[in-house]
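Justification of computing resources. Each target in the renewal requires a structure prediction run like the one illustrated here; the chain below, 187 residues long, is used simply to show the kind of job we budget for.
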Amino acid sequence: MLELDIDYTRAVLLGKSKQKHVDTAEPHSILEADGWCRRGFEQVARVELRDDNDWNDPSPTWLFVDQHSLFAARHAPWVYFITRNNIIVKVGETNDFFAILNGEGQPRSGTAGGRMGRLGRHKDWARPNDTDMRIRRELKIAAAHQEVAVWANPIVTGEGSQVIESKILKEIKNTSGSLPWLNYMCK
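Resulting structure tokens:
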């Protein structure tokens, strides 16, 4: 069973770790995932850390629980959110299947598992700032406290997923003044 390292947690909360600081100001309402339901987004899974993780692993792998039927739907493309306590921290897109499950009901590892297979388990030690590893590293404590969820919207219009992701990011930036915490730019 994974145990929290109290000293590490304290260092993160006090801003004395290498983890990027999370703005503690009240987030703008546009970042509340529930508000995006009317636009077709649904929570498709919650995230927990896998039991076989070592707490010292800088990028622990994820277990997707409470999966909605959309999670493994045979559809592409998608726009998705990663949330922490219902606040959008990352907007992403994929032209791949969202999740291709293995016999354990989890996305296969890497790209064979669709977008969530790569997000939840991919490790490229040669590229420590790989997007998927960075997201898991930044959300390590939140995932350990079961505060992370994934929301998704299957794209059925003629617009591509990158176009829709870009529009969402611009709307969030224009409304709130900044991008979600783990988005560094608009495509």
